Amino acid sequence: MLRNHNHHAEFRSAVIQHSGLLFTTCRRYAQDRAEAEDWLQDSWLHICQNFDKYDRSRPMVPWLKKITVNVCLQAIRKRKIIYNDIEIDLMDHTPNALDDLKAEELLLIINLMPDLYKTVFNLSVIDGFEHAEIATMLDIKETTSRTRLHRGRLWLQSKLANPIKEVI
Questions:
Q1: Which residues make Cβ contacts (< 8 Å) with residue 83, sequence separation at least 6?
Q2: Would you state the torsion angle of the CA atoms of residues 56, 125, 104, 27, taken in this order, to the nearest 10 degrees?
Q3: Phi and psi at residue 105, in whole multiples of 5°?
Q4: In CATH, which of 3.40.50.360, 3.30.479.30, 1.10.1740.10, 3.50.50.60 is domain 5-79?
């Protein structure tokens, strides 16, 4: 917990400065905004409880993001969702599909991705984890991580090939 006034002030500053970034991270993994808000609150609670363990000689943002991602993954595991592989129709990808796509629209489309693929997609593409790290985090084989990322990309490409209004 926060042991002294300096830690309290530093924690308060971190909350003010980095809540938006951490909410965005939670939102990528959550099914909806309310779930992301819950996960953000859980992340800050976990960060507060471990704030005295933070190595101040290192950048804070990667430490905060790692805790937040772990909180999100833990919540996803608690859901105990049984994943079913979906069949993917390979469609021609329209080269201009992303031209008019806004970040919020892309987030909405990624959020529609089956959790099986969305989690690995976020960890790899958005958060920059290697497949070996993802495999350890999710307790899966590295090849499974690669396969899920590939299938997630195919799923995303198939959705982007269709007009956005059909997807959302």
A1: 114, 115, 116
A2: -50
A3: -65, -40
A4: 1.10.1740.10
Q: Any idea which residue has 């933070």 for tokens?
A: 54
| Element counts in the chain: helices (H) and strands (E) | 8, 0
141: helix, strand or coil: coil
* Residues 62-101: tens digit of each pLDDT: 999 999 999 999 998 887 644 444 444 434 444 444 445 5
Scan for tokens 């396969």, then name that residue: 147
Q: Give the residue ranges of the chain where pLDDT is below 50.
A: 81-99, 166-168
Q: Which fold has domain 103-167?
A: Arc Repressor Mutant, subunit A (1.10.10)
